[in-house]
Design a protein that fits this description.
Layout: H1 14-27, E1 30-35, E2 38-43, E3 45-47, E4 50-55, E5 70-76, E6 83-94, H2 101-111, H3 121-128, E7 130-142
Antiparallel strand pairs: 1-2, 1-5, 3-4, 4-7, 5-6, 6-7
Length: 182
């Protein structure tokens, strides 16, 4: 795991920071997950003190994280997109026979937009997707008052997506000179 800032030990403000993480994760629907030097924008739900994510199959891409691996999670402001907090969490798989499966998938189904069939989404995820919970460890890499000045720029990930073809033709062009008013 690489990061610009050194991990800080859990601080006396831990309960306040934990509350901040929970509040930010509830207010935003997208976070950045960093693992093995790559960052991924992921759609998430905050449920039972953990960030819940579904990936694979027809769902979003997610890094190849093993059960119990640490990941960095960057939460941004919904207003201006600025980084607010970066924390370390432990990613664990939620399997259909786990006791966490029902509440986790129920939260994901409730918040997921454009599901083809809400009633069978959890069964589809059990067959072809991976459901994960990312539980905060209490370690913060960046927090209000200690944000790094690094730009955190990264090259876009490769994708098979392309444009559909040439742009449409413009039928009526703008007048290039201003009309005379007198």
């Amino acid at each position: 795991m690489t990061s610009a800032a050194e991990p800080a030990a859990p601080s006396p403000g831990g309960p306040l920071r934990a509350a901040l993480v929970g509040e930010l994760a509830r207010k935003t629907a997208v976070s950045w997950v960093r693992h093995a030097g790559r960052s991924y924008a992921v759609w998430h739900v905050w449920s039972e003190d953990a960030l819940c994510v579904v990936s694979g199959g027809t769902e979003q891409r997610f890094p190849d994280v093993e059960d119990g691996d640490p990941v960095e999670v960057v939460l941004r402001s919904k207003d201006d997109g600025g980084r607010l907090v970066t924390w370390v969490g432990t990613a664990t798989f939620v399997r259909p026979d786990d006791e966490q499966w029902e509440p986790t998938t129920a939260a994901l189904v409730t918040a997921r937009l454009n599901l083809p069939d809400v009633a069978t989404a959890a069964e589809g995820w059990a067959r072809s997707s991976t459901v994960r919970r990312i539980v905060p460890t209490g370690v913060f890499l960046e927090a209000p008052g200690s944000l790094s000045d690094d730009a955190h720029l990264a090259a876009p990930q490769e994708t098979p997506a392309t444009t559909r073809g040439a742009l449409p033709r413009i039928l009526h062009r703008r007048v290039l000179r201003r009309p005379r008013l007198s």
